[in-house]
Amino acid sequence: MNRVILLDSGPLGMATNPKASSVEVEECKLWLKSLLLSGEMVILPEITDYEVRRELIRGGKAAGIRRLDQMKLDLIYRPITTQVMLMAAHLWADARRRGRPTADSTALDGDVILAAQAILEANQGNEVVIATTNVGHLSQFVDAREWRMIV
Description:
The chain has helices spanning 9-15, 23-37, 46-58, 62-74, 82-97, 110-122, 135-138; strands at residues 3-7, 41-45, 76-78, 127-132, 144-146. With 151 residues, the protein is an alpha/beta fold. A 5-stranded parallel β-sheet has the order 3-2-1-4-5, with helices on both faces. Helix 1 (9-15) crosses helix 3 (46-58) and helix 3 packs antiparallel against helix 4 (62-74).
């Protein structure tokens, strides 16, 4: 069984920050680099790319976009598939039935899309964890941990 780490937008956003303007940003970059050097399978889900990329585009941060494009080459990139979206729809509906929605009912809800990708990775026999800065929403579906807790 392989351990697979899926990146959420929090850690990915810090890792693509072209200026290490804080201790946390620099720490996150070093954390990601150490995972890769130790041979961990780190996945960049398409929904996470989308969430980070749209903010970089909005802010006119060309250097951040270049770093994100490079990460798509350095990491394992997982596109959104029909199977992911079908699973996400089930997760979205189930969370609402249980009274634990992860976003407004009119929102796209990237958290359930990311959780669906994680579940499908786990269904392939992998041990899966999502590296995030927001454990609350994701942990109702999958193993989600603050990125610093994944070593």
